[in-house]
Specification:
The chain is mainly beta and 285 residues long. It has 2 helices and 22 strands. Strand 5 (73-77) and strand 6 form a beta hairpin.
């Protein structure tokens, strides 16, 4: 008899959970609801956390709901930031790259005491590792985002500038931003003109992906040794920069460095230093 009752109860439980719908306070939950709670005298009470307790949640799940006792607001996580049910505007993650600068850089000399302060806003709490590299110099910083407000981060430079002119440094973050820092050069080189714009192409360009190690090698007839630097107009989200140092006269190679994130796929035409060339951007994978 006991076994028979046990089997009946087990069958009923299996039937209940196999329906994939649960009703509390109602025997017939809505067909489009996995869980329906019905009451005319009580409400639903989500977990109550302070802002500090909320920000201490490691990797919150998409759609996680809490009641923020610091703000007295219902909040939910959209995968990037905490949205509020109160009359406040959510702040999207962003970076400002021009907060402050210190130190100077000189061609051929190891940098020392050079920093760039940026501001991160609306970032979820967690670790960060930020860097930006150009012409032999890397600005970098690592640490922890403390919350969704604004936080200043000091990037410290290391390395030795190869060329003079102005270096453009693009953060490896999403979203990204960039900043320019002058590099004091020595003698400015001169040429009698470019002899070939398509001596060699290196690296790949892919739609929506930050460019790494992509260059275009051209040749020119050098009439005066020294440094050179030219910056082309950004095309399709891609910046072209021509920088380096000539140590000999005559026919010499020059390196055009490509940086940024391509917006569209397909052929992209560049023009810099009297040279034009085309590189193809592969479609996003």
């Amino acid at each position: 008899m006991f076994l028979k009752k046990y089997l009946i109860v087990t069958f009923l439980l299996l039937t209940l959970f196999s329906n994939a719908q649960i009703g509390i306070g109602t025997p017939k939950p809505s067909s489009d609801a996995a869980l329906e709670i019905k009451s005319s005298t009580k409400g639903f009470l989500p977990p109550r956390l302070t802002t500090a307790e909320r920000d201490a949640i490691p990797s919150p799940s998409l759609g996680l709901v809490i009641y923020n006792t610091t703000k007295n607001c219902l909040e939910w996580y959209n995968g990037t930031i905490w949205y509020s049910g109160c009359n406040t505007t959510a702040v999207a993650p962003s970076f400002l790259c021009s907060t402050a600068t210190s130190g100077t850089m000189t061609q051929g000399q190891a940098v020392s005491g050079v920093t760039q302060t940026i501001t991160a806003t609306g970032m979820s709490p967690g670790p960060f590792n930020i860097s930006a590299t150009y012409d032999g110099v890397t600005f970098s910083a690592s640490g922890t985002y403390t919350g969704a407000g604004s936080q200043n981060i000091v990037l410290t430079a290391s390395g030795t500038p190869v060329g003079g002119g102005t270096g453009t440094y693009v953060l490896n973050t999403t979203p990204s931003c960039s900043f320019d820092r002058p590099i004091t050069g020595t003698t400015t080189a001169t040429t009698s003109g470019v002899t070939t714009c398509n001596f060699a192409s290196n690296g790949t360009l892919t739609q929506g992906q930050p460019i790494t190690n992509a260059t275009q090698i051209i040749k020119a007839n050098v009439t005066k040794i020294g440094t050179y630097y030219l910056k082309g107009t950004a095309v399709n989200g891609i910046l072209s920069e021509l920088t380096g140092t000539f140590t000999a006269l005559g026919s010499q190679e020059m390196t055009i460095r490509l940086s940024g994130t391509p917006i569209n796929s397909g052929p992209t035409n560049f023009s810099i230093g009297g040279c034009t060339f085309t590189r193809t951007v592969a479609p996003a994978p």
